[in-house]
Amino acid sequence: MLKNSSTLRWLSALAVYAFLYLPLLMVILYSFNASRLGTQWTGFTLHWYRVLLQDDEMLRAAYHSLLIATVASAVSTVLGTLAGLALYRYKLRLLPFLIVAPLAIPELLSGVSLLIFFVLINFTLGLASIMLAHIAFCISFVAIVVRSRLAGMDPALVEAARDLGATPWQSFRYITLPLIAPGILAGGLLAFTLSIDDFVITFFTAGVGASTLPLRIYTMIKISVTPEVNAVSTILVLLTLVIVAIASRLAPSALRSGA
Amino acid sequence: MKLFGRRLLAIALLFLALVAQAADTLHFYNWNNYIAPQTLERFKAECGCRVSYDTYGSNDELLAKLAAGAKGYDLLVPTGNAVESLIKQNALQPIDKRKLPHLHNLDPLYLNAAFDKGNVYSIPYAYTITLIGYNEERMRALGIPTDTWAAIFEPGYLARIKGRVTVLDDQRELMAAALKYLGYSINDQDEAHWRQAAQVIMRAKPYWAAFNNTSYIRLLSTGDIWLAHGYSNDMFQAAEVARQAKRGIKIGYAVPREGAVLALDSMVIPRDAPRPDLALRFIDFMLEGRNSAELTNLIGSGNPNRAAMPFVEPAIASNRGIFPDKQVSARLEQLRDLDRRKRRLMSRLWTEIKLR
Amino acid sequence: MRNRERLTRWLIAGPPWLYLLLLFVAPTLIMVAASFGWPGVEGGLAPLWYRDAQGLHFDLTLDNYINLAATSLYGWLFLKSLVYAVVVTLCCLILAYPLALTIARSPKRWRDALLLLVILPFWSNFLVRIYAWMIILGPQAGLSRLVNGALGWLHMAPVALLFSPFAVLIGLVYVHLPFMILPLYANLEKHDPALLDAARDLGARPWQCFWQITFPLSRPGVIAGAILVFIPALGAFAVPDILGGTRGIMIGNVIKMQFLEARDWPFGSALSIVMTLLVLALTAAAAWAARRAGGRIYA
């Protein structure tokens, strides 16, 4: 009886995987399509990848996306870890709300309010404004992941260290930090992922010359779609796969599901 | 590791900043796919300068970005009603026509537009006409006239092509088409007329597949859609794509006899432009026939430059959907900007149209 | 020692607190203020106050909220978006649960790879994947022909898969599915298999095991996933824009419209505030339900 229900579960899981992968496979497949239209297969070609490599605007946008994602995830990882620690150690009233509230507000509204904010304080929109905006929403995600990791940590370890004479800083540095490191890394990866594909908030806070990949694709899609866009997406997936593969080699425990 | 990374980043950012400050850079903010790559290259070579190129997808995006304080652009290419808005906001600087020796190349028909009398602030760049594109065979087989707005508004015709029609997702454009269909001017601001137009739209809406600004090019050329309300240069591309796909689909396009919207895009210089001199050089460069013809040949946009005509491909130059004859020209109008009360009313009507 | 504690607390909690205050609370408060302002003559936001000989004057109005309430139009819009968001959340739950359960019960060494497989598609660009759905659901594509062929066989009228509420739902479910899968999985993974063993030993059938043990225990995960899906789905505008037909508009589209075409930032802000209050009220209700279900939202 159990076998049957487990088979059923596996089958339905497979169906959902198929649902998730169908569009992606189409995107990848059609990046090699000789036809400009995405509907009929007319021949295999690397033409669009060549076009992509010569497309300065697209490459610049890709560079911006990577730069913003790196900076935003780095800063938000630091701030988010601090927030996670604070949430775990201290009974604060305002910080929990500040962490959860940005998640409760649709991105559209965050983007719009940041736009009005930047305009009102006369802050010129540009790469910096995008970074600031991304950090703001990434902190929450990192904080929650780190806090969750801390909650799963055995407090007895820290107590033992203190009993043996370690200062608070030492017990943090040598006990807590290594234990929550997977959580911090996971949070950082999550922040990176969210930042690199963010469209809505970036749309409202981007400025002069600060195009990112999602924005560039959006403008292209508005005027003229070519499979070049598919090529970009395929490369993005491959690139991120490579990064994750490297990360899992460097810090194998970081991506353990317990994070 | 983190500290090293941060230092590296700081250095990278500093380098970026320095590079960005390199002298002689024209900051050009243009529509996407609205200049031929070789034209830009030739300009860079001729003027010995660099071009920092940004793109927007709609006038609203341009205006919103500028309203949000975007600075540092030397050259913009807004459509007439957006130019009007920018002039009212005192955001543009007058153009020194003495620095434009090729100005006389322009067709007087496209000068002195209502939004900028005397072309104080704007120089025409290119234009498109909003019209109807269609699958020739299907329309012939179903007996639907394609030279009138009735094709997208009359339930009698729409019933035969239900679910195979798209219209522009642009409140001004669609209302303009409805107003023309009713026999009014596209700039008619009478509220009663607007409500009439909204009624026409809502009556036809159940037969339409979608409001769409972009995908209709593809949808027409694959045969998913048989009739589309869209821009002349997009229809040109759809026809090209359909021809190359060799699936037997022929796309035709025509300006409806009631009249249509002419969207004239003009080059303007913001008041706070860092290098207006480079902008003027570019404007004059684009006033040369050969340069402005390259855009027309690339995307099938209309060209207000008479000196460009010898360089335009014959198939495009003779296309009445792109270069209308005098009779049709007389029925084309340009959209004017609306004041904020009217914008609010239009926005409310549009939300109603979309929701109900 | 006390002061040292206080200082440490400020050093740890201070930076994120300050950052969020500046870049989350301040913009939100400004948006609240903006919702009481007038649109600028040429769009945007008119100054909320000005100084003259008599001193400081405020130029505020309730006009935006009056506009909002004056017609049932926006009420219907909110309702429609709510319904869509609820349906999307339910669909995500139904699709995500078997998958999350399968991964959680799979051998330990497979779990990471399986999770990665879930997230992988979402590293390509969001818009491009939505456009892929346009092709998949197109009238001449395989799926449409299959469905309409079957309908024709049953003597029913053909339906359009693309440009319909169905397409919007598919698109929204597709985009938000991982946000349901991950929290569910995080919760299910922690379940003690001994509970299920015990239940089976006592003679419970698989179905009973699920409904009476697994599902109740997973409630915090379900609620976390529901929140992570419901809220973004409510404010979605790209998917309805691209896949929706002539009636696919949602509240997100209208708000975006105010900031672009209409250039009416105060009205857009007012709509945003009302929507935020709605969402906060619903989230608070969900959090309360989560507490009653016995578990933190983010445990």
What does this structure look like?
- The complex is a heterotrimer of chains A (259), B (356) and C (299).
- With 259 residues, chain A is mainly α.
- Chain A has a domain at 56-225: MetI-like fold (Orthogonal Bundle).
- In chain A, 77% of the residues lie in helices and 0% in strands.
- The mean pLDDT of chain A is 82.
- With 356 residues, chain B is of the alpha/beta class.
- Chain B has 2 domains: 26-125 and 264-325, D-Maltodextrin-Binding Protein, domain 2, CATH 3.40.190; 128-261 and 336-355, Periplasmic binding protein-like II (D-Maltodextrin-Binding Protein, domain 2, 3-Layer(aba) Sandwich).
- In chain B, strands 4, 5, 6, 7, 8, 9 and 10 form a 7-stranded mixed sheet that branches. Chain B has a 3-stranded parallel sheet with strand order 2-1-3.
- In chain B, α8 crosses α9 (191-204), α9 (191-204) runs parallel beside α16 (340-355) and α10 (216-222) runs parallel beside α11 (232-245).
- Chain B is globular.
- The termini of chain B are far apart.
- The relative contact order of chain B is 0.17.
- Chain C has a single domain, classed as MetI-like (MetI-like fold).
- Chain C has helices spanning 2-34, 63-70, 72-105, 108-119, 126-136, 142-153, 165-188, 193-201, 206-217, 219-234, 238-243, 251-259, 265-292, and strands at 49-52, 55-58.
- In chain C, α3 packs across α7.
- Chain C is globular and about 85 Å long.
- The model of chain C has no long low-confidence stretch (mean pLDDT 85).
- At the A-C interface, α1, α3, α4, α5 and α6 of A face α1, α3, α4, α5 and α7 of C.
Order of helices and strands of chain A: HHHHHHHHHHH
The CATH architecture category of the domain at 56-225 in chain A equals: Orthogonal Bundle
- Number of helical elements of chain A: 11
CATH class of the domain at 56-225 in chain A: Mainly Alpha
CATH class of the largest domain in chain B: Alpha Beta
